[in-house]
Write a structure and sequence with these properties.
By secondary structure, this protein is an all-alpha fold. It has a single domain (31-146), classed as Up-down Bundle (Four Helix Bundle (Hemerythrin (Met), subunit A)). 77% of the residues lie in helices and 0% in strands. It has helices at 2-14, 32-56, 64-93, 96-101, 103-125, 129-146. Helix 2 runs antiparallel to helix 6 (129-146), helix 3 (64-93) runs antiparallel to helix 5 (103-125) and helix 5 runs antiparallel to helix 6 (129-146). The longest helix is centred in the middle third of the chain and has 30 residues, at 64-93. The termini are far apart.
Length: 150
């Protein structure tokens, strides 16, 4: 019984949760700044997790459980950033009409979306500080391009 419970718990921890930035209907509930703010929160978690993983890795045998939790958490938040870019910004906020009206701006936003997705992927793959810094800088650039002016 104990082995079955541990096996099910392991699968539950490893299986990614289904996350969605938006239901993709024009409900007016979500706005760009709210989604971007949540991306910054995801980033802060990635940053803290990366630093904590590096520290805990100094004694991996002693810290195996905490390491596992931080790694899963870091990857989950990186995935969350990717999904928000894909499901909210690429699917809904980047309009194809922009490609006709202002092709340069459209391509810059498209390229930025790709850069953020790749940077988040690299943060999933490692704890390198350079990757975390790149993601940080890209998120601020992202906010300049997509954030609503208040």
């Amino acid at each position: 019984m104990k082995k079955t419970f541990l096996a099910l718990l392991s699968v539950a921890l490893i299986t990614p949760a289904t996350l969605s930035a938006h239901c993709q209907i024009p409900c007016g509930i979500y706005d760009d700044n709210t989604v971007i703010k949540s991306m910054h929160t995801d980033f802060e978690t990635i940053e803290k997790a990366s630093k904590t993983i590096i520290e805990l890795s100094k004694d991996p045998a002693q810290n195996a459980h905490q390491l596992t939790r931080w790694i899963i958490n870091k990857e989950s938040h990186a995935q969350s950033i990717q999904e928000k870019v894909l499901n909210y910004f690429l699917a809904q906020r980047l309009k194809l009409g922009e490609a006709t009206n202002d092709k340069e701006a459209y391509l810059a936003k498209l390229q930025l979306c790709h850069q953020v997705i790749v940077a988040a992927m690299k943060c999933k793959q490692s704890t390198e500080e350079a990757n975390v810094e790149i993601l940080h800088d890209l998120l601020h650039k992202f906010e300049e391009h997509f954030g609503a002016k208040q």
